[in-house]
């Protein structure tokens, strides 16, 4: 089946070359960091986590969000999602792969990843995070490969794949829950020291993952002969809407608790992000932009739902997917 990746028209090979070029530039920059050290990133003892960990966290959410396609298809027999289940599974594979790569890059030296394997520490949340991510990656590779091969041959996938699908559905929330535990167990980080962080992570995952899948479906339909389907894209938009409403609600609950309790160490984080603190406000525009995007797509979905013509509706859904994806991404990246 891999031989099919070597077949395609000029547009396909143009995309492949563009992606390889981009990857090559990124690898060259990484080699510079490998030679110079993590000091090139600007991180320090006070700012120990940066863009790498933010990307890792966001992509874990994207990987976990893929379950919002798999679950309706296999547990509720929602046949409409049958056309895009494969996309969700392989999106999860690529997202988890990038998660692991960001962790390796953030360690400074790739050889340090062996410390997790040679000296396992069950008392470390990072150890369990590595376990759940690798298991989820393996599950999706096995499931995706077998289901795609079955679809290609117009046959039903083998029976032993179904239990793996059930396990992957249960496992998906675990990867983002364990990731949240990495942060909410740190007493020195007031912004993350909250029990609601794991539910917030899951709500944002179930919004950002399907939102990215909406964009992927529209791009595939535009440039290939495969049509994911109108109903499928609209159903994804509904899932995103409900998830982002829950996410915003959780955030507002956190705002109330922080400012009503008047705990200075907790208040300062939100003040810094939204209004600036002690003359520092570089992240303020980004946070308000993220909030604007999230509010925008919550209010725009009614226009999508009741619009008469799908051609116009498709434009709304495209903008909706973009705004939600950017909103979730900016919100998470700015929070670091």
What do you see in this structure?
The chain is mainly alpha-helical and 336 residues long. The protein is built from 12 helices and no strands. It has helices spanning 10-36, 51-65, 67-75, 85-106, 113-118, 125-152, 161-184, 197-223, 230-261, 264-274, 284-306, 310-334. Helix 4 (85-106) packs antiparallel against helix 6 (125-152). Residues 306-314 have low confidence and may be disordered.
Please render the helix and strand layout as text:
Layout: H1 10-36, H2 51-65, H3 67-75, H4 85-106, H5 113-118, H6 125-152, H7 161-184, H8 197-223, H9 230-261, H10 264-274, H11 284-306, H12 310-334
Helix pairs in contact: 2-4, 2-7, 2-8, 2-12, 3-7, 4-6, 6-7, 7-8, 8-9, 8-12, 9-11, 9-12, 11-12
Question: What's the short version?
Answer:
The chain has 336 residues and is mostly helical. 74% of the residues lie in helices and 0% in strands.
Order of helices and strands: HHHHHHHHHHHH
Shape: globular
Cα(first) to Cα(last) distance is 41 Å
Alpha-beta content class: mainly alpha
Low-confidence stretches: 306-314
The pLDDT mean sits at 82
Major sheet: none
Strand content: under 5%
Rg, Cα atoms, Å: 21 Å
> What's the helical proportion of residues?
over 70%
Care to count the β-strands? 0
Count of DSSP H/I helices: 12
Key descriptive features of the protein:
336 residues, mainly alpha
């Amino acid at each position: 089946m891999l031989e099919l990746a070597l077949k395609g028209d000029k547009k396909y090979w143009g995309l492949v070359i563009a992606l390889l070029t981009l990857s090559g530039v990124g690898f060259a920059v990484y080699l510079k960091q490998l030679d110079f050290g993590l000091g090139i990133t600007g991180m320090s003892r006070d700012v120990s986590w940066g863009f790498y960990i933010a990307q890792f966290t966001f992509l874990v959410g994207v990987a976990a969000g893929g379950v919002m396609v798999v679950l309706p298809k296999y547990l509720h027999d929602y046949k409409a999602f049958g056309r895009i289940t494969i996309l969700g599974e392989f999106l999860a594979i690529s997202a988890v792969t990038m998660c692991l790569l960001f962790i390796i890059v953030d360690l400074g030296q790739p050889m340090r990843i062996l410390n997790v394997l040679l000296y396992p520490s069950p008392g470390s949340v990072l150890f369990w995070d590595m376990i759940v991510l690798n298991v989820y990656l393996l599950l999706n590779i096995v499931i995706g490969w077998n289901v795609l091969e079955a679809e290609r041959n117009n046959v039903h996938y083998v029976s032993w794949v179904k239990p793996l699908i059930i396990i992957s559905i249960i496992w998906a929330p675990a990867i983002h829950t364990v990731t949240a535990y990495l942060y909410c167990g740190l007493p020195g980080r007031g912004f993350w020291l909250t029990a609601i962080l794991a539910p917030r992570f899951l709500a944002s995952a179930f919004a950002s993952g399907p939102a990215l899948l909406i964009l992927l479906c529209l791009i595939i339909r535009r440039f290939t002969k495969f049509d994911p389907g109108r109903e499928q894209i609209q159903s994804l938009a509904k899932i995103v809407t409900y998830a982002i409403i829950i996410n915003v609600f959780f955030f507002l609950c956190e705002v109330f608790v922080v400012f009503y309790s008047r705990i200075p160490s907790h208040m300062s984080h939100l003040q810094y992000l939204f209004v600036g603190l002690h003359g520092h406000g570089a992240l303020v525009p980004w946070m308000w932009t993220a909030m604007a995007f999230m509010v925008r797509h919550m209010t725009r979905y009614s226009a999508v739902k009741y619009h008469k013509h799908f051609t116009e509706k498709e434009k709304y859904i495209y903008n909706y997917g973009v705004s939600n994806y950017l909103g979730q991404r900016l919100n998470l990246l700015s929070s670091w």
